[in-house]
Write a structure and sequence with these properties.
Blueprint lengths: L7 H10 L5 E5 L19 H12 L3 E6 L4 H8 L6 E4 L4 E2 L2 E2 L5 H18 L6 E4 L3 E5 L5 H13 L8 E5 L2 E5 L5 H12 L3 E6 L5 H4 L7 E5 L8 E3 L2 H23 L1
Helix pairs in contact: 1-8, 2-8
């Protein structure tokens, strides 16, 4: 791995949080564990990050997870992570233990209307595609020309995004319309309570991750991958640096637990 050593303030924060009694480590997927690519189906995670997450999940008093905007089925297939790593898809609408909330008849009907309207809206626009999820639909424009993508997103914002019962999440060149309320921050807190964590580490790159960074408090450590305004206390340049951070966290956590349990 060619990434530079961690900045000293982040290294110190990693050392401190590694010594919490019950640690929760959660990452976003695209742009965090896997580099951003033109075709989302080919977003391969960095082996070093996957190895660190698996190893963290195997440690005592340590929980690892991934919260992504992807549908849970796609997240599980792409990541290849074992059941010991908790997976949460659709920005918190899908948990590895099942839906966070089941769709009632009204929500199912609304989702059907959304799909029909969005399919008509984008038509055969080059570079624009829909990602269909159980409780939401995402409109991706990353492959489109900039002006085309901007026009499509504006049409979605001024159209179905304004419907009653629709919850909107915007990311990098994508807008997602859900028929249930989704929030990565709320999903993080749900997982935190489930495992009774005394501190959490969250690593993400997108604007949708800011709701999770907003939940960081006390000994928690938030790390943004890439540039841009963020609520995270720390940042690293790219996914390679995120892998270094996870590896360092694993080493410090393993060493501290060996001393505590030995």
């Amino acid at each position: 791995m060619t990434a530079a050593p961690l900045p000293e303030p982040l290294r110190q924060a990693v050392d401190r949080v590694a010594r919490t009694p019950r640690l929760l480590v959660v990452c976003d997927y695209d742009g965090t564990l896997a580099p951003i690519v033109e075709d989302p189906a080919h977003a391969v995670p960095r082996p070093e990050s996957m190895a660190a997450l698996r190893a963290l999940a195997d440690l005592p008093e340590t929980t690892a997870g991934v919260i992504s905007g992807r549908a849970l089925r796609d997240l599980a297939a792409l990541s290849g992570l074992p059941a010991e790593v908790h997976l949460i898809g659709s920005h918190g609408a899908e948990l590895d233990a099942g839906f966070a909330q089941a769709l009632d008849d009204a929500a199912r009907s609304l989702r059907g209307r959304l799909q029909a309207d969005l399919e008509a809206l984008i038509g055969q626009t080059p570079g624009v595609f829909l990602e269909l999820k159980p409780a939401s639909i995402a409109v991706h424009v990353r492959r489109a020309e900039a002006a085309v993508g901007k026009s499509v997103l504006e049409a979605v914002r001024s159209g179905p995004a304004r419907w009653d019962g629709v919850h909107v999440t915007e990311g990098k060149e994508v807008i997602e319309l859900a028929v249930v309320e989704t929030d990565k921050g709320a999903a993080l807190e749900l997982l935190r309570r489930r495992v009774d964590a005394t501190a959490a580490v969250f690593v993400g790159d997108d604007v949708t991750d800011e709701k999770a960074f907003a939940r960081m408090a006390g000994p928690d450590v938030g790390v943004k991958v890439g540039s841009g305004t963020t609520l995270a206390e720390f940042s690293v340049p790219d996914t390679g640096d995120a892998a270094v951070m996870l590896a360092d966290l694993l080493t410090e956590r393993r060493n501290w637990l060996a001393g505590e349990l030995g």
